[in-house]
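Deliverable D4.2, example record:
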Amino acid sequence: MASGKAVIRARPWAVACFLLPALLLLGALVVYPIAYTVWRSLFDASGDGFVGLDNFTELFSNDSIRHALRNNLIWIVVAPTVATGLGLIFAVLTERIRWATAFKLIIFMPMAISMLAAGIIFRLVYEQDPDRGLANAVLTTVHDTFSGDSSWPDAEPRPDGPITAQDDGSYLLETPVSAGQPVLLPLVAVPQPELEDAAPAAAPEGAADEVSGTVWMDFTRGGGTPDTIDPEEKGLAGITVEAVRDGDVVADATTGDDGTFTLPAEADGAQLRLAADSFTAPYNGAEWLGPNLVTPAIIGSYVWMWAGFAMVLIAAGLAGVPRETLEAARVDGANEWQVFRRITVPLLAPLLAVVMVTLMINVLKIFDLVYVIPPSSSQGDANVLALQLYLESFGTGGDQGVGSAIAVLLLLLVLPVMFFNLRRLRRENQR
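Output generated by the structure prediction step:
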């Protein structure tokens, strides 16, 4: 049978006929767009004025583009590493569980979802309202399990009343109190639904050697007397009342169902303070799509999609690892962690490099998730080069010269990764 090289030398025209359609498609879909993009990057927004390398200078002087480049570097380092690490862990775990096929199916299933659909899903997952966003629903549940809620987060002092708000969120009665003289601490602004189960406020009844008082909602629809407990007004239960003297708490008490409290004689002559933790706003979770967490949050959605891809490739490589080598290490006394770290990972290193490089090329082109998930207020904080390319070329910028320069920069960033991958594949074929 003739070798491939002999056939090429004997019938070059036949080889050319077979290659011609592919070469035409490659030229039309790859070579021409690249060449035109490089050429267009040398012209201004209108495409008529030649500006040379000015558009490339703009890449490193424009704050938005520099921020996008910085985010791309974060993506390149974090996303492939985390996805590959999780894929490796999942691949190893699937060898030790009974329902391995079902587990792989569940982990790989997000790959069947488009980036656009995944972006919409995670836009809902990261909703700030815990009643709508899954992430904050979990966070608030865990938080509220270990930390109690504030009693009345909406309550405020009456603007012209005896209590004043402090910088730390507490409310202070600046006039010192005296034993035997009842103290009235009116608050307002509590929504009516929160008062449905509250008991009617009661007048304080304390002994001559005690400081007693009432904290209540000082508001009656259609009337009522300020700073006076009217019949329809409700007591505010569970508020911590502290007696403060020279900055130190000398006594404290908690209001009952009817809003009353009683402090011992040590409170005589002290100021009363309603503790800040009785009025703190309820915990609503993290601001996932805020400026500080938006990039890690989007990377999390990417890992959710691509960890399954990494797992499948690594699991295929793991199936080819010689079991005799692993068993020999266990016989020699190595524990499972040592077998994993010193044998499994080194044997899978070439495959892990393939997965890492593939994901690095993929994240350099990330666009859909960054475009869909962040709200407009924080999209600039999550910006990446592919999104900036779109905004510059077709968005408010409308400068296809700068957009083409960004595309050329992306190509230059991808080329070293591609060359590394091709070189590694060539070395593998020569073995």
